[in-house]
Amino acid sequence: MNRNFIAGEWLEGAAVRRNINPSDTRDLVGEYAHADVAQTEAAIAAAHAAFPAWARGSVQARADALDRIGSELLARKAELGDLLAREEGKTLPEAIGEVARAGQIFRFFAGEVVRGGGEHLPSVRPGVEVDITREPVGVVGIITPWNFPIAIPAWKIAPALAYGNCVVFKPADLVPGSAWALSEIISRAGLPPGVFNLVMGPGSRVGQTLIDHRHVNALTFTGSVDTGRRVLAGTSARFAKVQLEMGGKNPLVVLDDADLKTAVECAVQGAFFSTGQRCTASSRLIVQKGILPAFVDGVTERLRALKVGDARAAGTDIGPVVDADQLAQDLQYIDVGGSEGARLVVGGAQPKRDAPGFYLEPALFVDASPEMRIAREEIFGPVACVIAVDDVDGAIRVANDTEFGLSAGICTTSLRHATRFKREAEVGMVMVNVPTAGVDYHVPFGGRKGSSYGSREQGRYAAEFFTTVKTAYTAA
Questions:
Q1: Using one digit for the tens of pLDDT, what is the confidence trace for 57-94?
Q2: Which is the catalytic residue, given 87, 88, 94, 245?
Q3: Any catalytic annotation for residue 135?
Q4: Which of 212, 218, 358, 444 has a beta carbon 3.0–4.6 Å from 321's, enabling a disulfide?
């Protein structure tokens, strides 16, 4: 049984979680220990005790530890990618790529440790000088989702440690294997006891304890909007620092002047790969009427050629949905789309496979309107709808007509239209002739409206959340 890691020791939990392969539900990936409230509080206490020495310790030691973690992830990307694909259901190439990205993130922040900067300014008062520095915030609680079970933990844990914070990490209860494997690597990287802690288990116990505990100085969360609201309410009540990454209902605009092949590929990659289980997935395809018939035909043909199957099998394009509950939700939305008047042109069925798994053919609806539920609510599965528009003005209006604001894309050969869209799209990230899903690790990630709250993640902008600014005055 894979245990929790608290104060430098691997400890048995209060209960056990069975981790099942969504490609073959007969396959038990492993059993993982659940922490209870007392163990979570012990992890917080260990982090709180370790913080002063870690925050003021050697920056070279920090950099070396992060580099060791990143290098081992990259060296073991095939092995760990296989584990990720087995427990989460994304295809093996996608899973290996995710592990590689996690390794690159740790190595990036290994460099950031020794690139830390500040400002030295003259005061407006003669004989006084001013130093502006960044300091770690303290104990950081990290709560991550199931859809990127190693990359999202990496892009939170790496900067937290790089900037001198101590960590209590709660991964998604649904897919603990990759998070445990990452934590096992971190446990051997030379960090002092208590600097990094892993507490697996349900949000009702482990997550809520992190939200409420007075010694958790900052909490970074990626997950659903409803849970994000609860996290915000709890952390705000005690004035803790909070960062939330939540849902998306991302538009991909396709204008009449778009390159058809590019537009089709952006739509299929963005909406359906990773089984559509990405907060950046383009589930609203907003298409100008002149290119609409050819675009729908192209996407339909492309989807029919995709192979749905075991995530680790050679040639699989689309793996299973992550579990039975998510599959039921996806199927419910497919029923809702039809009842609202949208027309299903391809997919939406559960293909038969030799092994029992949570398989779903990618579904494409046409004749959708912006007020339909399938065009407004995040489905988080391989389901997308096409909304027809007359012109660029209508496309931008529909694209912005959502409570979310994470990512938005446009396919066009017009520099004028692309420039306008980049300026007017009410999102945190804009993509021109590339899929809405797929971002780099060294630049900011985040959105607006109901998608994000707080400062950006990733790249040098991560310092905004994981540090606090101090201004010091010195008389010469």
A1: 999 999 999 999 999 999 999 999 999 999 999 999 99
A2: 245
A3: no
A4: 358
